[in-house]
Amino acid sequence: MTANQAGDANYNAAPVANLTVAIGKQNQAITAFAATPAAPVFASGGTFAVAAVGGASGNPVVFASSTPAVCTVAGSTANIVGAGSCALTANQAGDANYNAAPAASLTVAIGKQDQAITNFDATPAAPVYASGGTFTVAATGGASGNPVVFASSTPAVCTVAASIATIVAAGDCALTANQAGNVNYNAAPAASLTVTIGKQSQVITLQVPPSAVVFAPGGTFTVTAMGGASALPVTITIAAESASVCTSGGTNGTTITMLSAGDCVVQADQAGNSNYEAATRATQTVSISKATQTLTFDSQAAQVLGVGGTFSINPLATSASPNSGAPIVYRSLTESICTLSGTEVTVVSSGTCDVEASQAGDVSYSDAEVVQQSILITAPITSFSGTTKPPGGAGSAPAGLATATISGGGPRCAFDLDPGNTGFVAATAPPPPGRLLNQGLFKFKLLGCDASPVRVTVTWPTPVTGYTKYGKAEPSAGTNSYFAPTDLNMAGQVVEFTVTDGQKGDDDWVVNGEIIDPSGPLVSDGGAPNAIPTLNQWALVLLALLCLYAAGYASRRRGDAAGGTR
Fold this sequence. Notes:
Elements: E1 2-5, E2 14-18, E3 31-36, E4 47-53, E5 61-65, E6 71-74, E7 77-80, E8 84-92, E9 101-110, E10 118-123, E11 134-140, E12 148-152, E13 158-161, E14 164-167, E15 171-179, E16 188-197, E17 205-207, E18 213-214, E19 220-222, E20 224-226, E21 234-238, E22 246-249, E23 255-258, E24 262-270, E25 282-289, E26 295-296, E27 303-304, E28 310-312, E29 318-319, E30 328-332, E31 338-341, E32 344-347, E33 351-359, E34 371-378, E35 383-387, E36 401-408, E37 414-415, E38 423-425, E39 435-436, E40 441-447, E41 454-459, E42 467-471, E43 481-483, E44 486-491, E45 494-499, E46 515-521, E47 523-524, H1 535-565
Parallel strand pairs: 18-25, 27-34
Antiparallel strand pairs: 1-2, 3-4, 4-7, 5-8, 6-7, 8-9, 10-11, 11-14, 12-15, 13-14, 15-16, 17-20, 19-23, 21-24, 22-23, 24-25, 26-29, 28-32, 30-33, 31-32, 33-34, 35-36, 36-41, 37-40, 38-40, 39-47, 40-46, 41-45, 42-43, 42-46, 44-45
């Protein structure tokens, strides 16, 4: 600087005075050095801003990093390289008037970034128990890149190796997922996942006999069943609606016993356990067919019987055992020949009697196949004809055709046609004195007669005026003799009389179904006749006896009646 003073009138101008003043540069300082955000967190490629207030020189504040492994700076932007302490400096240059600002320092702590485990799940999400079965687990980890590590906290249910979970049992499988941290990332919080391992279902395969089952009393058949993997037994039972048809028994009920024919509904069950569900019941219907019945009806003997005669089926039809137990029923297929009541056959006429035997079935047996037999019914021989055998000589009648018929004695009573037993023969013993068997005798034998009287009618070639029987007049008689037949009646050439098995007239006097009776016409030989009762004499004797009997009977009746009125 210069100083000048002008003079005036009195003074000269003062000499110029010079003064040099040294003006110093002003100091400046950096303030408010800060980061935004103040505590940034690591993020790959992340940044944060730095700022500071410089001095009055107006020169820019320049930032720099002294920890380039943690952060770098470009302008006012700090680039995050890693987590840690980011050491920053701030500088401001001076100028002609200002000194450079002292360097400012700022340490920014860059925190580790958190990481989380997401998408933690199982595939399949709901696995089912299987011995040695597995399922996979997966999760998405954080940015550290460290692997997610899985573990099981329920080793009795499941175990884990890497990402494969192995099933040990049904139940809740509790899994955890962890991820470690590193210099830039914190360890992820543990994630949890509960996987419910369901019980495995079981299926029963039930097998019944493939062939038809036919009922047999107490008969059995076997069913087989294969159950699920629990290895628990499969139990066979019978449905309630089939309780009358079959029962189960034996090991686990696999032996089925038949009670009747019908539908046998077989049920199979298998229980469950901690790892297996109870199996769904399996059923099968076994149709038990009715058993057949077999009738045996053997041939029948031919019958010689008159109309109204009866006989029994013999042999009876038989039914092979076992059977329904129903009675065997007989039916006539030819009712014009025979009728049946139970097992008794009544003859309607001669011919072939066809009889059918049947047996009804029941719930367990089919009707038996009908069987039949034919029975030949022949009418008994009740007539006989032949040529008489007169003795010849004086008083003898000429030989001629004679016939004999019988009635009564039951439906089987018939002539025995053996020539030695029935026929017109010559007299075998001398006739009574003064008498002559002028036409010989009719010798006959009747078979199959019952105890009822037999009326014998003989038609001789010539008229008959007397008649005699030859044989035993009494049971105790030691010899044969001639005597009048019972109920004798003569009319012209026709003679009728009565014989009864085992009574007078039957030479054997035995009730045995056989009647033996030789008899013939009797005439005088021309000499003085002996007293052999004639027809009229016998009739008078019989009439007298009848009158005596009637009188006695009437007297008793009157006595009874009188006694009743007293």
